[in-house]
Every structure is written in C-alpha cells, then in structure tokens.
Amino acid sequence: MVSASSPDLAPDAIPRRLTRDVRLRPLGLGFVDPALEAAWWARYARERARVVQGNIAILYVISGSFGLVDRLLFPAQARTLLALRAAMVAIMLLPAPWIFGRRSLRFLERHAQHALLYLTVVALVSFFAMGWVVLREVDELLLLVTLLCALFLQVCIYCTSGLRFAYAAPVGGVATGAFFAMVAARAAVSREDLLTVAAFLAGELLIGLAVCFTLEAMARRDFLRGLSLEDASRRTEALLLNLIPASFAARLKEGQTVLERLPRATIVFATLIGFDEATRDLSPVAAVRLLDRLVAQFDRIARAHGIERIKTVGATYMAAAGVPSGRDDDGPAAARAVLEMRETVRDMARRASLPLRLRAGIASGPVVAGVIGRTRMAFDCWGDTANLASRLDSHGEPDRIQLAPSTAHLLSGAFAVTPRGRVAIKGKGEMQTAWLEGER
Prior knowledge:
Helices cover 59% and strands 17% of the residues. It has two domains: 34-235, no CATH class; 246-439, Nucleotide cyclase, GGDEF domain (Alpha-Beta Plaits, 2-Layer Sandwich). By secondary structure, the chain is an alpha+beta fold. Strands 1, 2, 3, 4, 5, 6, 7 and 8 form an eight-stranded mixed sheet that branches.
C-alpha cells in the first residue's frame, strides 16, 4: 500500500514555494512580482537597520569634522564655510531623535530609505553651496581637492549609504551634472581642464552606478537563494513530520536517540480485502490512484482521532493510539478511527461497485516506539502488543474488527463488543477475543 500525499504547505507573506515570477526589472532593479519586492525590502530593511544607523552616525561625525579641513584649505572663506557647514549639520540632525531614539530600529525598518535620501540631499546641497563659495578663486590644487570631495560623496552615495539603486542613480546623476555645471560657471579653468573634470566626473558616475547596481543585484540574488533554502527546509520539515511524529522529529534533529518505551498504547492493523479482485480490470495507474485515495482517507481519519499512522505494508495499514506520548483514551480513539475506516471502505465499495472490505485487529499494551536507521529512517512500534494486533488482523474475518482481551476491556461499556470465543493465535496459543460491533 502506498502512503498518501503530504498536505500542501500553508501560504505566507514570503512565498513558501518559488512559483512566483522572480525576474528583476531591467532598469532600477526591483522584482517583477510586487509581493516578492515587498518581502525583499521588508527583510532587507530589517537586517540592515543597525548598519544604516551606524552609517548615519559616521556621516554626522564626518560632516562636522570636515570643518577643520575647510579651515586649512580655504582660510579666506573659512567663516562662510563654517556657517554653511553648521547649517548643514543642524538640518541633518533634525531626524536624529527618530534615528537614534528608543524606537529607532522600527523607524529605520520602515523609513530608512527616506531618512538616507533626506540626509543625502542635505549633504549635496550643502556641498554645492560650499563649492560655489570656494570655486570663485581656485587654483589647480584646490580644484583637485574639490574633485576628490566630489568623489568621496559619490562613494558615499553609491557604496556605503545603503540607498537603493532606484534612488542612488538619479541622485548621483543629478549631483554629477550639477557639479560640472557649477565648475563650468564658477571656476576660472581652461577648456582642457574642464574636459578633464567632465571625464573625471563621468568615470565616477559610471563606476558608481555599476557598483551600486551590482551590490543590490547580488543582495537580491542572495535573498532568492535564501528563499530557496527556506523552501527546501520547509518541504523537508513537512516530509519529516509526515513520516515521524513532531516530538520524535525534534529530538532526531537534535541528534538524540529516538526510542520510547510506553507502558500502554493501542495498535491497529487494518487490511483491505478484495483489492486485487477489485482492480483486476483497471490499469496499474488507476489501481494505484484508487489505493492512494483510500490511504489518504485513512490518514485523514487517523489525524481526526489523534492517532499516528505508523506504516503501510502491502494492503495493510498500521496505526497507533497513545504514540508517541501516552493517553488515557487510546483504546476508544483507535476503535472510533477503525470503525470510521470500515465505513469509508463500505461507502467506496458501494459507490464504485467494488468488492472491497476491511479487516482489522486491535491490541492494547506496552510497546516500544521510535525511529531506526540513519540513511533511510523508519518510524515503527515493536513488542508483543504490535505482534498481537497483526495476528488478530490476519486471523480475523472480512468486514470485522477483532479485539484483544486488553482492548475489549478498555472498550467495555462505551462500545458494543461481542465475544468471539477462543481463537488459536500464532505464537500466543488460544486466546479469548471479541468483535467490535460499534459505538453504543
């Protein structure tokens, strides 16, 4: 008998199975799928909140400390530059309570890009204002220093600020064009020097765009690889939980030995009778599909009554109540499940006009349950109780459920039980068994 298909995994904000469109947009990056894009930015912002906070702190320190450089390089304009820099730092500090406050991480997870864009624009406007002042009277050395400052700003925008490419590209492009226009209009430089500045700025722009684009593309691909790993982990977890009880699976992942001695559990063996005859005129594929539908129904019934499917062997379905942790109503739970399985087989046989019947045996007592094997693990139950349930099934009758004396005692009062008499059980000798007729 084949096992039933595992249940589908529940949906989540981040797709559990990568069946969505994972392509990137050609310009400005961004995933084609808006849900995937939202999931990417939520995770990216959460993971980089501390990094962004540190980058902004460094920006504050550099913005203030460069006042010393202004004083050394441009002594004639030092007072004006100091006033502009003080205004810049004051304006940049406006969002500081949100960036470094008690709820700063939550703020940065939602508004990090807006904060970075605001600080970048303030820094650029201040840089242009100071450049307009110093470029009025500048020699080649000071022009070179100004270009290096522009390069530093480009590196900050594209590589270290954390701005997404969709923001960094237009900001950097506009800043580059504005700086060149300011040099051309304000600085007294030759045409050759102006062409050199243009080439210098164009190279900065192209390299910055390429680096920013590559970094974000790599981060997005890492995100997709992470989703693939999470998806594989979920499917592995679902498969493991479909084969092994959750408590056993958790212990197995921790490297513990998974064997449990239970003082009492109720073991069920249920065999489909007449399956070969019923599928004689069917193709092999149709026969397996019929069997799969039956096993899927048995699994559903077992889950509904809180019992564990142990394994399927041939046309026999083995389950256990009270495994992996004991329960007081293991006998009644197993009995109700087997009665419902029998009704399911009867109903399918009647609707499809098939000669199918269910034969079952139930026994209660001590068992050993656990997982054996390393390369091909198997969850199973062992002991006299499991052997007895198997013998009761094989010594039973079609459409009847045979009970061991221990199980009949557990069901007395709540279920209709008819004595069968003494039956010769292989390995046990003669034993007084009973038939389970139904629930009272």
